[in-house]
Amino acid sequence: MALVLVLNSGSSSIKFQLVDPDQHATDDPFASGLVEQIGEPHGRITLKHNGDKHVLEAPIKDHSAGLDLAFNLMSDVGCGPTDVDLVAVGHRVVHGGILFSKPEIITDEIVDMIRDLIPLAPLHNPANIDGIDVARSLLPNIPHVAVFDTGFFNGMPPAAALYAIDAQTAINHGVRRYGFHGTSHEYVSQKVATLLGKPAEDINQITLHLGNGSSCAAIQGGQPIDTSMGMTPLAGLVMGTRSGDIDPGIVFHLHRTAGMSIDEIDTLLNKKSGVKGIAGVNDFRELRSMTDEGNQDAWLAYNIYIHQLRRYIGSYMIALGRVDAITFTAGVGENADFVRADALDNLQMYGIIIDPERNKIRSDQPRLISTDDSTVQVWVVPTNEELAIARYAKQLAS
Ligand code: AMP
């Protein structure tokens, strides 16, 4: 069985999966794991394979040591890179700027281009490059492929992609809407086209990726025409810990009047805001139990979240004109029936009617949750970004 190693390298962690590109979206990967606490005194590697979980605890100096140890652990249980038919390595790269609209086979030049984009993603791209460098040196004879989170949104119309700020400043500093979660929106929208039995070019849809990070996209005939995340993944919907859209004047106010530094405001908006900022928790299971107990902060957080989500859905309905499908995906979108029900409540005059019984069904399969007479079909489609990356990687490598 041909397998692809999918790597998602963060600043202190590496997520890895060995994926059969021909597997179903809801099948477990052949193996999966996580290297954590890189650079700290106590590192940890976990590996899941064949239903067993293996753990290795050791100091992990850097990404190179981390991946090396992970490969050793995989070899110990018979799923090391040389034990399997490894055909490609797929790397998740957060920012492709306007340079990349599709996945690319990684060469030294491509790495240099990803490096040039560091100012746009100062936390993410350096870690992605570390992962690429290390994996290329450990597996030099396997093709490596970069798949960009922004790629799907690269061709968005200027009216949606550009901000109304001084044009020269925007050009000089790469200030524009890039969008993120592109691999997920593309994967899910293509899946919906298959489920509807129509070519993607023939359908208009709204995809709602609601996880700890959340974004939505308006997709017209297979091409995105708008998305909620912006120059950074801070914009758009209310998220687990991120504010989503706020008045930019708030930043100046907090800096000038409250005396907060730019770094403090960055932390506030990225880590201490969103649902967590209001209710103190960011997991929707906890939030739900709190609302059930009548906790007012939890209700407020939830209502702000839903209000913002409906605002985006409404604006995308207008942007698209005709909507064939609305699809929920990711941790909240796939699991929280109450979010789905409230997001699309009372929209029957727009042809959107959720069937409460269908909506309640729990499943890891794609499923229709609208009534038969809803003119807009509403779907829940599990996303699988690793599988999408594996498929691109295999395609480019062969
Ligand atoms: P993701 O970022 O896609 O992994 O989504 C993670 C989020 O999904 C968690 O923080 C939870 O808020 C949410 N989630 C996961 N499982 C459930 C569930 N069974 N019910 C409600 N929310 C869930």
TrEMBL record:
Its main location: cytoplasm. It catalyses: acetate + ATP = acetyl phosphate + ADP. Its cofactor is Mg(2+); Mn(2+). Mg(2+). Can also accept Mn(2+). Substrate binds at residue 92. It holds the Pfam family Acetate_kinase. Keywords: ATP-binding, Cytoplasm, Kinase, Magnesium, Metal-binding, Nucleotide-binding, Transferase. It is found in: Cytoplasm. Its EC number is 2.7.2.1. Pathway: Metabolic intermediate biosynthesis; acetyl-CoA biosynthesis; acetyl-CoA from acetate: step 1/2. The active site is at residue 149. ATP binds at residues 15, 209-213, 283-285, 331-335. It is an enzyme of class 2 (transferase). InterPro entries: Ac/propionate_kinase, Aliphatic_acid_kin_short-chain, Aliphatic_acid_kinase_CS, ATPase_NBD. GO terms for molecular function: acetate kinase activity. Mg(2+) binds at residues 8, 385. The record marks 181, 242 as: Transition state stabilizer. It comes from the Bacteria. HAMAP family: Acetate_kinase. Homodimer. Belongs to the acetokinase family. Catalyzes the formation of acetyl phosphate from acetate and ATP. Can also catalyze the reverse reaction. This is Acetate kinase. It comes from Corynebacterium felinum. The gene is ackA.
